[in-house]
Amino acid sequence: MEEVAVLTKGEDCIDLPPGFRFHPTDEEIITHYLSMKVADSNFSARAIGDVDLNKCEPWDLPKKAKMGEKEWYFFCQRDRKYPTGMRTNRATEAGYWKATGKDKEIYRGKGCLVGMKKTLVFYRGRAPKGEKTNWVMHEYRLDGKFSYYNLPKSAKVGSFLLFLFPLFILIQKFIIIFLFLSHDILHVRRIYIRKTLVVLSVFAG
Questions:
Q1: Looking at the 3D structure of the chain, how many domains does it have?
Q2: Which domain CATH number covers 184?
Q3: Membrane-crossing residues (predicted)?
């Protein structure tokens, strides 16, 4: 009889076949999870939990995950920095996430833009004098025609979209790597910790 791996988290119990790993590509995160959550707020995934990113430090996220030993995934509602603005609040009690580099385009098939990926680094303390850490986050959001035509009319507001459930995925490799999905409109973000060598979840800003 085939053995089945059982992952337990709180009162939840998930049966998985030996060798099972939840490791979606950037395009799969956008098309199979982020867009689904944007279209239906009741959408849930077996391997993805829920968390408030602004109330959690990156090193506390693994224990809040639904499953996984080296990868953890979460849905998280976007928190605006100002009630009437579009900027996202990226601060936690211990520090803040700061964007770095250019956003990367994510395509499906031949040249169909479906999303963007932003890279952020976690700093301890308060801006602009925070201390840089090894925690890195990749933030994903829907983009292109895909971000508009795949959403229900109730989710479309004027010239921009409101995505309330970012997906966060945390991944750990030699160190700790986390991934988060979000779009700001809804975003996705991936976070990881790097040692000597640099390694690597629904918004607009």
A1: 1
A2: 2.170.150.80
A3: 160-181
